[in-house]
Automatic annotation (TrEMBL):
This is Polyprenyl synthetase family protein. GO terms for biological process: isoprenoid biosynthetic process. It comes from the Bacteria. Belongs to the FPP/GGPP synthase family. The lineage of its organism: Bacteria, Pseudomonadati, Bacteroidota, Saprospiria, Saprospirales. GO terms for molecular function: metal ion binding; prenyltransferase activity.
Amino acid sequence: MPNQPNQINQLRERFISELRATFSDQEPRGLYAPIDYILDLGGKRIRPVVALLAAQMFGDEDLKQSMPVALAVEVFHNFTLLHDDIMDDSPLRRGQQTVHEKWDINTGILSGDLMLIQAYQHLCEVSNKTALPALLCTFNRVATGVCEGQQYDVDFESRDDVTIAEYLMMIELKTAVLLGGALEMGALSAGASQADADHLYAFGRLTGLAFQLQDDLLDTFGDSASTGKLQGNDIIRNKKTFLFLKAMELLDEGGREELNRLFSESPEDPTPKVARVTEMMISVGIPEEVARLRDEFQAKAYAHLDAAGGSTEVKKVLRALAESLLQRIS
């Protein structure tokens, strides 16, 4: 077996080749060109790669059984990004114009709708037809969860009483369940038992939660040169992540009032605001609190990975991939 980074890169390149083979000059171009455009913008392709790895765990070495699952997962993921960009009125996606900016909103809605249909079409192309009912049930459950998570995210923007439990539920639905679903469906396509697939789903879901907490942490405390993100961007945008909610729980009454006030302001120069919020969070141990919960989720994730059957060598690759996601330079 190739070393772990090489195997991941090879799977990613194999998947990208298969994805691009789905592009065509199909008419009407106003419908299909935006789909090819967003699918070709790049990204880490983590979800399809873990679907393929999960299938390899249970013997699908040539990936013929699992490639349709990987395509379905990636097309669905990009469908959600396309519609999220419209909802957020985002001008850029991965450094390029978003679909609704390059074309228009109506095109973005319709092309996104077709992407959801295409995801089902890919899923129906799995060669292991006996697994198809379970695959469809899993896909429907995960897709519903993603939409619910997006709605909670929208709802929470106008609420001042969001709890930590509610925030964790939201990021689980919006981000983590699709990672878990990709692993579950990859395993099922290769003939894994539902019990083993459930363990891989839990591994992905918990890893997704840990990753989102790490992402929130790095947004505030990471080095921009290493993360590629503007430090303190969540603070600048008054985004109430786990860091804000935990700080509100741990600060005294005066601190809570100050933090609330700071998160109601949008100064032209946000530097003093970011510095003060960061100082307040450090004073009550927020970086340590986030790291503790992140590590708790990941330890549970690895326990589920260890409990699953299948190839121990592929498990090592999945563990290495999880580590690479979680241990970005802070």
